[in-house]
DNA sequence: GAATCACTAGAACGAACGCTCTATCCAGAG
DNA sequence: CTCTGGATAGAGCGTTCGTTCTAGTGATTC
């Protein structure tokens, strides 16, 4: 309009393969994921997202014509994969189930403290805010939980635990991790996470 | 202004002792608590509260001059006591710790299902949304968690568990209940709650 | 009867919300 | 070259947000 500048769009000069669109879309999703994690769904505005992602409103609605809901669902799926990576890393760190689970809580505690007690579970806040009211987000959340549960269940199975027990224990392991992270976050103290890790290890030990 | 009606204010005719103010204030707090539980802090507007509580905006700001934050903090304290009552009832239901804890999860599951999976923990959503950003709410949340933890710890102590163990177990019991309720809510299924109840009972059994 | 006080009542404010819209840019195809 | 279409750009829509403000109510006190 007023500024016919020769701005080079946003192609990063390097990366000759992927076009600029991939970069912008990814930047929007990642920014949204982080903001939803810290401020929740209702507390995060689309204009704030576009500002912090250094993308314009037009770009946001270009990539996510479904608006805020579609964008949030994509961010939830991003958080899903992010947490899955951490979970696989923690659980795979040791052959001993008890040791692996405490490594998991240790990792969560470190990350939480490093962020100033801000970055808890990437999807919990949004999940609670939208439960029963935004189906497209609800579904992304349900898929994330199912994904994580499968990861834990497979790991328990590989550790020699009976299939039925593994399925049930996966539920409780995840529930306790979720609750412990929430508790650590509001208390600004990593103790609840570490304590729950030890108790989970003790519980698992009764199954061998 | 336009309507000089002879509306009897809101004194309920009966109850000669307490004045009308108590009724209105309580009504506002209870409505806020329920709305925060279901929609979270950012998703709940003061005008919606005044509408559903059948109180005017003037009344809301009369009783809570600190605005939305002060009102939310009062609602959190209300939810604190509400959950404490349920906790005491569940834990006191049996002399056997394992049985008492599964009764607790049973009660939570019933309530959750009866509300159409809407009414989870009365304070979690608001707690997560405001952590690190609204000190007055953060403090009310911290007090609630401490209150519940003390209730569980005292109960474990009375059940003959060592003081140090009781303190730590109280953490994990609460964390797991919180996580299980969240999980049950998003899955629209009471299984996670019941399963976690059994696992908690099993964990407690290893301490006798 | 006048004054006081706790409470009710809702119009109005500036700011922010999600979203729509038109306009423009630019790389590649013909 | 022109043409096309994905991507960028942001002004502006109607609505709602939290809060402030003035006015008015009915019961109580001197």
Beta-strand share of residues of chain A: under 5%
- The average pLDDT of chain A is 90
Shape of chain A: elongated
- Return Rg of chain A in Å: 20 Å
Helix and strand run of chain A = HHHHHHHHH
What's the count of strands of chain A? 0
Q: Largest sheet of chain A, if any?
A: none
| Poorly predicted sequence stretches spanning 5 or more consecutive residues of chain A | 1-21
- Separation, N- and C-terminal Cα atoms of chain A: 70 Å
How does the helix and strand content of chain A classify structurally? mainly alpha
Largest interface: A-B, 46 and 46 residues
What's the number of helices of chain A? 9
Helical content of chain A stands at over 70%
Oligomer status: homodimer
Structure in words:
Two copies of one chain form a homodimer. In chain A, α6 (124-130) packs across α7 (135-158). The first copy, chain A, is elongated and about 55 Å long. The longest helix of chain A is centred in the middle third of the chain and has 25 residues, at 67-91. Chain A starts with 19 loop residues before the first helix and ends with a helix. The model of chain A is unreliable at 1-21 (pLDDT under 50). Chain A is 71% helix and 0% strand. Chain A is mostly helical. Chain A has nine helices and no strands. Chain B binds a DNA duplex (30 and 30 nucleotides) through residues 1, 3-4, 7-10, 19-21, 24, 45-47, 55-59, 61-63, 67-68.
